[in-house]
Amino acid sequence: MTAAPEEIIANLNEIKLNLPKRVRLVAVSKTHPNEAIEAAYGEGQRVFGENIVQELVDKAAALPKDIEWHLIGHLQTNKVKYIAAFVHLIHAVDSEKLLKEINKRAAQENRVINVLLQMHIAEESSKFGFDEPELMSLLESGRMAAFENISVAGLMGMATFTDDENQVRKEFSSLKNTFDRLQGDHFKDASFNTLSMGMSGDYKIAIEEGSTMVRVGSNIFGAREYT
Ligand SMILES: *Cc1c(COP(=O)(O)O)cnc(C)c1O
Fold it and tell me: 204 alpha carbon to ligand 1 midpoint, in Å?
């Protein structure tokens, strides 16, 4: 159930209190009503994350225009057009086909869309994302240069869903290594500066391992109910 506004405010402030300056907080508001977002907005929170395109579009239309909307979940190519005009950051870009479509729609909107490349770091095979050889071959091909309306702002990853802290830590640490390497070799611009890793259950570990952006939902808004 969605937490009451005063709980949301308290949760948000507690998380912010312990967040290092270099780490941005994406408040993951998926499934929660606009009133919940307004409570966090009233406390100064401006960055919100959603994972369903239709829900993101509806919320963006109804809520204040200075919100930075992030699409955090898997994005289907045929849905890019609905968010291309306003989305601030797309976290989970995991194929060249998706890059192509984002670039095309961004060009039509006369803008540059910020994206994160999602890396597959978890043990589960169901999680989306590039694996490292696949990404390296795309980068080395030179084909990224064609995407003039995309700015690659960094990487995103999700750790295995497990109680084993060491495993989660290892996965985050390996993503941080990849991030550092790409920053040195392929993305030398200052705009490649974002490492999105960490959710309610593991964001503290992610921060210790070098995250610069955490995506926190239930710890702010309460548990989600799916119907
Ligand atoms: C839902 C979601 C989150 C937030 O999950 P919580 O455990 O509620 O913090 C973070 N990242 C992605 C990609 C999500 O889909």
Answer: 14
Q: Answer yes or no: are the C-beta atoms of 169 and 209 closer than 8 Å.
A: yes
What are the pocket residues of ligand 1 if the criterion is a CB atom closer than 6 Å to any ligand atom?
28, 30, 51, 72-73, 199-201, 215-219
Nearest CA to ligand 1 atom 4: 217
| pLDDT by 10-residue block (mean), the chain, 227 residues | 96 96 98 98 98 98 98 97 98 97 98 97 81 94 96 97 96 98 93 98 98 98 83
Tell how far the Cα of 211 is from the centroid of ligand 1, in angstroms. 15
| Nearest-angstrom CA–CA distance, 42 and 51 | 22
The crossing angle, in degrees rounded to 10, of helices 53-62 and 34-42 is 60
pTM of this prediction exceeds 0.90: yes
Distant-in-sequence, close-in-space partners of 76: CB < 8 Å, separation ≥ 6:
53
